[in-house]
Design a protein that fits this description.
Length: about 120
């Protein structure tokens, strides 16, 4: 009888241990799933950032190529930024690009282009 009780207690303890083990495994699986979903979200965000960086690098390379093409022309660099603005505008660069390249404000570039345009028409 005592032996039966001990066997029964061992069986109950074993079943309880197995139940606790299954609970622990279940919690670990839930945590693992949560962590994997967070990692997936971050990977997607990083991929989006990488894509934006690649686009910006492409734009910068395009700007550098345009600068190189403009610099090859004799007389590109002058004493005043006004002539440089007009040369770059003639090359088809946007006002924002010209302002960035020459370290001028967008308003300054617009004003220079407007003034040069009026000067051309007044001749």
């Amino acid at each position: 009888m005592l032996k039966n009780l001990r066997t029964k207690k061992k069986k109950v303890k074993r079943e309880e241990a197995e139940r606790l083990l299954h609970l622990e495994l279940s919690e670990i699986e839930e945590l693992s799933s949560l962590l994997m979903s967070r990692i997936d979200e971050r990977v997607k965000k990083l991929q989006a950032i990488e894509k934006r960086l690649d686009e910006k690098i492409g734009l910068i390379e395009d700007y550098l190529n345009r600068i190189d093409a403009c610099a090859e022309k004799p007389g590109f660099y002058s004493e005043t930024p006004y002539e440089e603005v007009m040369v770059l505008a003639g090359k088809g660069l946007k006002i924002e690009e010209i302002a960035s390249l020459l370290d001028l404000s967008i308003n300054e570039v617009e004003l220079i282009i407007d003034m040069k345009g009026q000067e051309i028409f007044s001749r």
